[in-house]
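LOG
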Amino acid sequence: MVSTRRATQEAHERFNVGVFIDELNRRHRSTYRVVSEPNPPEAIIQSKAKTSWVEVTAAFMNDAFAQDVWSFATPGEQHRPIRGEVIISPDAQFARNFVSVVKKKLEKKSYAPVRDKYGPGYLVVSVQYPLFGRDTMKFMRRAWEQIQVADLGCFRSIYLVIRMYSGYRVVLWRV
């Protein structure tokens, strides 16, 4: 039986795959659709001409915010809100967490068999940061420049799914 938290996470991943595919189809006039959900990766996608794959991860402002969000969203789980935490330089804090999450995915060896079968896939990062603004990307770039990544070539590109006031925005992250 799938745990309630796992079911919530799968619903979140499925949603982000859907937002990403809609944008990919719109941008490239393609017809991608999900044909399988092996987990990992979250989805095998296929168009008339090509088969690829999508892996989803989430980048939160910090661990306390992640606990707040996941516990609130998971039915039957007691909500654990952030309490009394002083947050200094939230953009820098989010940027460090974003870089850490993406670095782990780019260096993860278990994606190699999927890459070898379908070619490099897409990494979709769900941005869970309510203060995301104009300067946040600058902090992300600075944090990225300060690390070294042993990229295994499993992903052709990285896309961010950012919640905006009017829905979601999908942005290509250029490393």
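LOG (cont.) second protein
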Amino acid sequence: MNDRSNEPNEVSDPHETRARELFANKEAFVSLLKDCVKAEWAGDLDVDSLRKSDTKFVLQDFSKKAADTIYEATINNGSQKVIFYVHVEMQSDVDFRMPYRLLLYMVEILRHHYNNSDENERKRKDFKFPAVVPIVFYSGGKEWTVPTRLRDMFDGHKRFGDSLLNFDYALVDAKGYDDDSVKGFQSRLLKVMMMFEKAENITELIEVMQKYEGDIGLLSEEEMRILSVAVDVLDIVYGTGEGKRILGKIRAGPKEASGMLSNLLQNERDRERQFINQGISQGISQGISQGISQGISQGISQGISQGISQGISQGRQQEKIETAEALLGMGDSIAKVAAATKLPIEKVEEISKQLNLKM
């Protein structure tokens, strides 16, 4: 197990990249602590002392996973050092190994601190390790059902109680936030990004940009760059190249951007209706045939009703298939795509094979 100070993070998933970019922003990170974690000590944080660590920790047991964002700071006017470790868990699948993974990362962080401390200092009676605070930022579609404390992973933990190694980690689930809960966020960037994480299709993404165009227009150049990274990823996922252009318009002139957003939103709603109408048309045709075979009057009525329902379902299914193709094209795993689109894993495997044949 090695700490690699000069090597790039081995995780290259574009979804994780956008969150890592987000929390590299100091204001967004402070907002995360104060507005999401809401720990009592967050108010005593010496914000000016906060600095991002460049050290990367890669675990042998999780060779493709790296400790994500690590900050160091002091609290209470410099009287106590704190190390914040934020694990950015952007995968759609819930990882039940998370408490164990966090434990390994925390031990490595403490080992690194100890080995880089003055040898004489660490022999002193009053030598102390810095507090290491683990935070998991999750934006998957499934409910996070992993225990938030290490002790619960031990067999018989209730019997052995305090004799067992233990810590709690803070969980920030992006899907649990809405317009009201982000209203008071200190960071406009975090507010907008939280709402981006809730968007499940291009229509919802455009609606977020329309609703928060005032906040987007006030972002700094660095914050805008980070937001652009997220939009680049979402543009690929949803198969549109308009997102980044819209951001530029919002910065240049709100009126022009508002019109552009409205037009694009209308286009996407028309596209959704087209999918559904095609499905309904096919469904009605099938329903009439089915109705004739069952009995002219009642059969046709029931058949058309069933056909409309089936057609709507088929239209939405086609949207899911297109999203799955985009995610697979970006290199997402079959399991991740199945969880994100709610398609059966067998269907995603079939789509993956078809894409490979085309390539």
